[in-house]
Amino acid sequence: MLGEYRIAGRRAADIAASVEGGVARGALRPGEALPPLRELAAHLGVNPNTVAAAYRTLRERGVIETAGRRGSRVRARPASTPREAIRVDAPEGVRDLSQGNPDPALLPPLGAALAEAAARHAASPVGYGAPPVDEDLARAARAGFDEDGVPAGPVAVASGALDAIERVLAAHLRPGDTVAVEDPGWGALLDLVPALGLSTVGLPVDDEGPLPGPAERALRDGARALIVTARAQNPTGAALTAARAAELRALLAEHPDALLIEDDNGHGTVDLPPHPLAGHTTHWAFVRSTAKAYGPDLRLAVFTGDPVTVDRVRGRQRLGPGWTSHLLQHTVAHLWRTGAVDPAHVARSYAVRRDALRDALAAHGVPAYGRTGMNVWVPVPDEATAVARLLRAGWAAAPGARFRLAAPPGLRLTVSPLGPDDVRPLADAVVAAVRPAPPRRSG
Question: The whole model's pTM is what?
Answer without folding.
Answer: 0.84
